[in-house]
Automatic annotation (TrEMBL):
Protein name as it appears in the record: Transcriptional regulator with AAA-type ATPase domain
Classification via InterPro entries: P-loop_NTPase, WH_DNA-bd_sf
Superkingdom per UniProt: Bacteria
Amino acid sequence: MTNKQLIYQFIQKETEKNLSENRFDFEHNTAVTIAKELYQDRTNVSRILNELFREEKLIKITGRPTKYISRSSLLEHFPFSDLPNVIGKEKGISSYLQFQNQPNQTSFAQSFHMIGANKNGSLYENINRILSFFYLPRNMAKIIVLQGEPGTGKKYFLEEIHTRCIELSLIPNSQKIHYFDFFDFFNHIDQYINKILEKQIITIALIANQKIDKTMINTILQRMDIAFLNQSQKFILALICTNETDNIPFLQYTPYYLKFPSIKNRPLIEYFDLLILFIQNEAQRVSRTIKLTRGFAETLYENTINIHQMKENVVQLVSYSLFLANQHADQNDIVLDEELIQDFLQCSHTRLVLDTFPIADVLVIPPNITYDQIIKEENKEEFKKNYLNTTVWHPNQAQTYYYNFISYNGPLEYSDIKLNTSLYAVRKIINKHLFSHQPDLLNYTSYKIMEEILHPSSLNKRVFPTEESDEMKNITHRISNSLENQKYKISSDTAEMINSILKKTNTLVKGTNIPIILISKYDLLIEQYANLLNLYFQKNIIHIFFLTDEANQKIDDQIEHIFNQVLPYDKGQGIILFTDSKYRSKIGNRFFIYSSTLSHCNKLTSFLMLLKTVSEVVKNNTNVLNITPDILVQKNYEKEYLKNCDLNQYAERTDDPELILINKVMPGINNFETNEQFYKLLKKITKKIDVPLSNLLIRNFIFHCNCILFEHENNILLRTAKEQYQENSLVHIIQENTKDPKIFNGHHLTELDYLTLGQVIESHLS
């Protein structure tokens, strides 16, 4: 390692240490200290530090002595902070950093998956328009216009934007939105601006319930610009106005001009979703099950003016119903029916507005059950049976097809030239009309179709998907015509089987525009990650590539080979990469600098990070730029969480999101019992090898143990068996501590299992 590399490594280490301890003195990051610590000449150290500074790898803090800090380390902790090259000693680094707190919602994008956010929803355009807002620098004034009638959700939407700004470190976490009446603010503008500067207010919302004119807006913006001229953190100004203000070209002021429709102009499904959401909140508040009738929903809709009034009516009606129940000492469920609402609001029900809307006559809404789980009254027992009980894993047809695909290790071509010509014809049709950016699945599907034609399956062994698809029928017809022209005989049963294969393949590739690539030397771990998540989401979205430390294979050559293999998976929306921290810089640079492929490279840490990334990609299947903020927020939260060791406490393990998800992703596993067994096993192993426990190690070890158990319980294998096993001291210790079959519910572990658990600990140590 060169002197330059040693010095840069020292700076990075000290910067990380200061940040982890919330210290910002960086007292060891000086030329004198570095020279002493590394036994180098001070003059030479100063020269190298200045070189690194000119290369923009270091930030300089002036003073005596001059200090240098790692830019990359700071940006990893504070990705959206605006960092200068030189910082004066009187100002300090903390002036440029915005400190994050734990996100109070699952992720940045999920918070905008609110009611009406789907592709045909009433808020879809607003959400897509506002996304680029979060990429703006802190030193730029930002203006948002939210227009709509009172009670249409404008302030709620603004609060969501403000929360996301805090999560992404665009503004300090102590900031709140300060609301002012527009006309009062205009008439007393000097006093209000002085108050804003004095209290360091950033987000200002001006509410105008009457018509305003362009001159007033110009005056306010000019005065605000002058007031914030010397401020490094510029203001966020939100103008909340009604539809009466229709004479101002707001797009001249800002691209973030958002219009909000009234409740009656939104689709009926959105009204119903809002109603269920409000009632669900009330069920939790009063800890009672609430029954909702169709008549209540229709009457409320007919007498609703806006969302705010609708929410208040729901709260009042639930409270009124609870009052009546207490009067009669009735401990049964609360019933919201037509008679109750007509009695309380003194209103009538004349129109059947929801007559054609597909809802049950009675919906049961228990406390602590989300909207997705709400059921019809008549299906309540079936719901309890199917939802609340832990059942064994029953893969559907798409999952079975995927498992057969990853388990297959036979030929994908024929030695016969004629058969290969037919195979290529099938492959060409599927490549053109179904999917083209998943070469492995394309080859497998084409070969399975040819095998079905050559060796038809017996009908009594087949189960066809019930959903019909004109697109799949069309592709089946094209394949049949092509092969019949080559003198193959395609029966109706064979055509039906081809159609079935295409449907299952289509399920796996639909909605996978942004592939997720795992690159690691821990092959068994990423195989479990990828195959388990692909099975769970029923998508062939995660693809894996292995690295090796073998002396005869240079790492740069391996990365170049993987780079060429990954490019065909890019569909134009970019790719998301996860890799070992050791290789992240090289792999990230290879994709970002030397190719036109849009990419985002992350450190491979835990299963939860991958699951959330896949979930975001499946829901927001647009491009990498829209997904990146979500990943950054989750990554920062996870980094803070995983550096501690809270999971050595039982209460924390029972409440950990990743450990709870095990039962969802691996049905049939009683993870509340297995997690404790595997935690005790890990404690024994780490004690033997003298390795301290951490949240990351506990999470990953318990996850992979459950995954191994899931494979044994269902007689499947999500990893590739090896021809030879290299036993080492760590694997031997794991074997010694897992002799009791009770640890894995009576299953005896294999050499592959021992090696997998060894990789978990090795990856942690590295």
